[in-house]
Specification:
Blueprint lengths: L1 H27 L1 H23 L6 E6 L4 E2 L4 E8 L9 E6 L6 E4 L6 E4 L3 E6 L6 E8 L5 E5 L2 E6 L6 E6 L3 E6 L5 E4 L3 E3 L2 E3 L12 E6 L11 H7 L3 E5 H5 L1 E7 L7 H20 L4 E7 L4 E3 L5 H13 L8 H9 L7 E6 L4 H10 L6 E6 L7 H12 L3 E5 L1 H4 L4 E4 L1
Parallel strand pairs: 2-12, 13-24, 18-19, 18-21, 21-22, 22-23
Antiparallel strand pairs: 1-3, 3-8, 4-7, 4-10, 5-6, 9-12, 10-11, 14-15, 16-17, 19-20
């Protein structure tokens, strides 16, 4: 309704202005009055045409320079605008506002990311005149991790004097995913559980044992030679042999997404560390690894063997965001039933509160080997958290804190 009233008001003013100039030329006569009339006539005609020109005739499309983007990197975006009516436009201002997911500027040059929230807006001035197609490109830097949905662009134009101004939204879809980066992880071997008890694994080069310890369901990546065909026929489902060494080196990587949105840098660091550690552990052929994320968008992947499973976890880590509503103790209790018995638990968290401490204290007596990685700024490492660490260590839970000092190193150095 407002647009119709605006158009009617502008059209009425142009008619009145035309009538005034024409009346002045008719009654005054002479060269000067008619010169003024004919000089302004092209501008009046252009204003009238622009007033009724449908600016929403423009359509847009975005093209990204790369389909695989990691957090902190940059991407070139090309914009193509098309129209069907070649009305002469002296200028056109294109404005693109990005969603909140892109407002975080990530700089990953010094290890784990640190970020600042800043609204990102791109504006370009173009001069299309009679062209039906217009292209331009720009560069987005320091992209944050996540799945980003780009929305509408806004175009604005007007006449030479700024009397007629028009603005319209141009629909140009576009969605892209920024994946978490990975860094090298140096592992040193700590104590691990074998069978029902615990012993030290001093030999870093673990030897594969051919001694069969039991049977389990077939998982993608298992060798055909491991299949127990008699058990498969008996149970009517694929069963594979579980070797002693495989059983003893089974691990579960647990990422807690239960974090406050205010702890952006710590959470991004936890995601980066989880992805880096997952890649490192899956390259070790002697270690069987599963993945579990706690929170609203929790995910469990058992026995990571294939590249497809790694990509599945990578995509999950790209889209996961902090969940401030959940409770670690409750979430861990939900996922505990799916975890393999006697598996080493490697838990990554951005906090160490009573809920986490109580949950880990209940896990420790069950014979599990538990390692807790805490991603946190040094200034937040207070007396209460240090007290929790001492209690956990008394029950055999190993705690490693990764602060800014660890972040600035070219690689993570941890013990598992």
């Amino acid at each position: 309704m407002k647009r119709k009233l605006y158009k009617a008001g502008k059209a009425g003013f142009l008619i009145i202005l035309f009538g005034i100039l024409f009346s002045y030329a008719m009654f005054q006569g002479g060269f000067v009055s008619w010169f003024l009339f004919y000089s302004f006539l092209p501008f009046l005609i252009y204003m009238g045409g622009l007033l009724f020109y449908p600016l929403d005739d423009w359509t847009g499309a975005r093209t990204l320079s790369s389909g695989l983007i990691e957090s902190g990197e940059a991407v070139e975006i090309e914009i193509e605008l098309r129209r069907t009516i070649p009305f002469p436009l002296y200028f056109m201002k294109v404005k693109e506002s990005y969603p909140e997911t892109l407002h975080l500027e990530v700089r990953s040059g010094e290890g784990v990311v640190t970020g600042d929230r800043e609204e990102k807006v791109v504006e370009r001035m173009i001069f299309p005149w009679f062209r039906r197609t217009v292209r331009f490109h720009y560069r987005l830097e320091h992209l944050p991790r996540g799945s980003h949905q780009l929305g509408e662009m806004y175009v604005r134009t007007g006449d030479f004097f700024g009397f007629v101004k028009k603005e319209a939204a141009v629909h140009a879809g576009g969605r892209f995913t920024v994946y978490p980066p990975s860094r090298n992880v140096t592992l040193s071997l700590g104590s691990k559980g074998f069978g029902q008890g615990r012993s030290a694994a001093a030999n870093v080069k673990e030897r594969h044992s051919n001694m069969v310890a039991g049977l389990r369901e077939y998982a993608p990546g298992d060798r055909i030679s491991w299949v127990d065909w008699k058990a498969t026929a008996r149970k009517n489902k694929m069963m594979t042999k579980e070797f002693e060494q495989e059983k003893s080196s089974e691990s579960v990587l647990v990422l807690s997404t239960l974090s406050s949105p205010a702890n952006t840098a710590e959470f991004e660091g936890a995601v980066e560390f989880a992805y880096s550690l997952m890649l490192k552990l899956t390259r070790r052929e002697t270690r069987q690894l599963s993945f579990l994320s706690l929170g609203k968008a929790g995910k469990y992947v058992a026995s990571i063997h294939s590249r497809r499973q790694q990509e599945m976890i990578r995509y999950h880590l790209a889209e996961v965001y902090p969940d401030e509503t959940g409770n670690f103790e409750e979430e861990m209790a939900k996922g505990h039933g799916r975890l393999p018995a006697q598996a080493t638990l490697m838990i990554i968290s951005t906090d160490l509160d009573d809920s986490i401490k109580n949950s880990l204290l209940r896990l420790s007596p069950s014979g599990r080997n538990v390692v807790l990685f805490v991603i946190m700024f040094h200034k937040e490492w207070d007396f209460t958290k240090q007290k929790h660490v001492r209690e956990l260590k008394e029950y055999g839970v190993r705690v490693q804190v990764l602060t800014e000092k660890a972040w600035k190193r070219p690689e993570f150095e941890v013990e598992v």
